[in-house]
Each structure stands twice: as structure tokens, then as C-alpha cells.
Amino acid sequence: MSRGRILGVCLGLMALVVALGALSLMAGRVWAPWSAWTSAGADPLWTVIFELRLPRTLLGVLIGAALGGSGAALQGYTRNPLADPGMLGVSAMAAFGAVMAIYFGATASTPWILPAAAMAMAGLGVALLLGLAGASSSMVTFILAGSVLQSLAAAATALALNLAPSPWAVNEIIDWMMGSLSDRSFEEVRLAAPFIAAGLGLILSLGRALDALTLGETGARALGVDLAAVRVRLALGVALAVGASVAVTGVVGFVGLIVPHLIRPLVGSRPGALLAPSALGGAALVLAADIAVRLTPSAAEVKLGVAMAALGSPFFLALLIGWRRRLA
Questions:
Q1: Residue 2: what are its φ and ψ, rounded to 5°?
Q2: Residue 60: what pLDDT?
Q3: How high is the pLDDT of residue 328?
Q4: Residue 95: what pLDDT?
Q5: By CB distance 3.0 to 4.6 Å, which of 2, 64, 179, 291 could disulfide with 250?
Q6: DSSP 8-state symbol, 178
């Protein structure tokens, strides 16, 4: 696939993100007309747009880019089309770290403890995943390793819920774990943006190494790729991006699984070419899903994590059925 074609796809996705971002600022139970944008505070909707919907939109872009880019990087490194931060237990480990911070009340006095705990556990999750899977890159090995991590994190989180000191703490943890962009402010944007940017920077720097790994580890070494350094950069990049995302929005799954498969027909199967378009595609998908949950005709807003699970589960099933037919 030529660089011009990839650049064209990226520009098209950027235009889509901008259009969805503008729609996100307007959409809601009350639609904001263009006149409210230019009222400079005279219209109450101006406050709704720039104090409530703008940070929500910015977080949607950041979270989607982090999850989409992380999914593409994990799929490229493992040569496994089912790899995803959620499916492989990385998001669950990040959620467990954040739940521990909430459980012990550490976030009341020091807000940075929450993202720090989430990123630390996400990094540990990636390291454990790569260690459990070993040198093998088979689909079964990574799915089993991810299932082990998912089970461990789920059990530890359930224990924290069981031992929570009050029903209010349980409700807070459960509500947060469902994943949502509602009621977020610029404080969450400032908290997550630097870490997500750093994580995405590390992920995007892996393009050449991921391309070389399509030849196998021996071929990659012959091309001068330091596999140990690649593994560290991947673990750190995914930990920063996914950990910061989970810390401010809770668990939003399936973005990293769905987006690379939607983008791959546009840019080809080269892993390095898929990284930047997947980040942009992830931003577009999360914005579209968040707009949809806001417009759902229900008494309470559907959580973004629930909506993505409803979308991602059939997609995952379709992938499995496709793989079964190809292997039959």
C-alpha cells in the first residue's frame, strides 16, 4: 500500500473525527443550534457546549485513539487478529488498579493516584501477558494468557467489591467500571492527555519493528530489530495509553478489536501502516458511540462501556465464525 493512499485514509479519518466532534458538541437531550455557539455566554446552551460537552468530546477522541492504537499494536506484535487490550486482560488489570485506589480512598486527597495505579497495573498486565505467552505467537496461546489475566483481575475486583466498607463504595465502583464519558470535566482531560499522548507516541514509533516481525522473530533480528526493546516500548506504550484511559472513563471494551479490522481493508495488512489510521478510527468510533448513547430514548443514559459491549460481542462472534470457516 502506497504512502499516498495511507495519508489519504488518515486525512479522511481526521475529517470524520472533526465532523463527529462538531456533532458531539451539538447532540444531546437538548440540541444546541449554531446560534448558541456564537452567543459568548448569553445563551445557557453556550455553557452546556463548552463546559460539559467539549471536555466529553475531547476525552472521546483521546480514549478512542488510545484504545484503537493499542489494539492495532497488540495485533501487529502478536500476529493475532483477536488481540485487544480488553480481550487480553490489560483493561481489566488497569481497572483493578483503579478500583484499589478508589477502595482505599486514595483519590480524595491525591487525584493522580488513580491514573498512576491504573497505568501501573496495565503495565504489569502487558508484562504478564507477554511472559505467559512466551515466544509463541499463536492465537490460542495469547487468548489463553489473556483469559488468565482477565480471570485474575476479575476475581481481585470482585473481592474488593465484596469487602467494600459501604454500599456507596460498591455503587461508586460498579458505576465507574461500566465506562462512561458523562459528567467529565477538563480536569480529567488534563489528567489523561499527557499520558495518552506519551503512550501513543511510543506505540506509533513501533511501526518499523512490527513490519519486521511479520517475517518472524529470526527475520526481525536479521533486520536489526532489538526485540527486547520493542517489547518494553510496547508494554510501556499500552500501559500509559490504556491505563490513563481506564482511569478517567472506566472500562470501554472492544474498540481495539473492532477498529483495526475495519481499517485494514483500507490500508492493507502491514502492521506499521495500521497504527495511525487505527488511532484515528478509534477516536471516530468512540465519538459515534457516545453520540448514540446520548440520543438513546431512555430515562437514564446508557453507559458507553455497555453500548460498546453490545456492539463488540456480535463483532467478536463474527470473527470467530470466520476463523472457524477458514480453518475448516
A1: -70, 155
A2: 96
A3: 60
A4: 87
A5: 179
A6: T
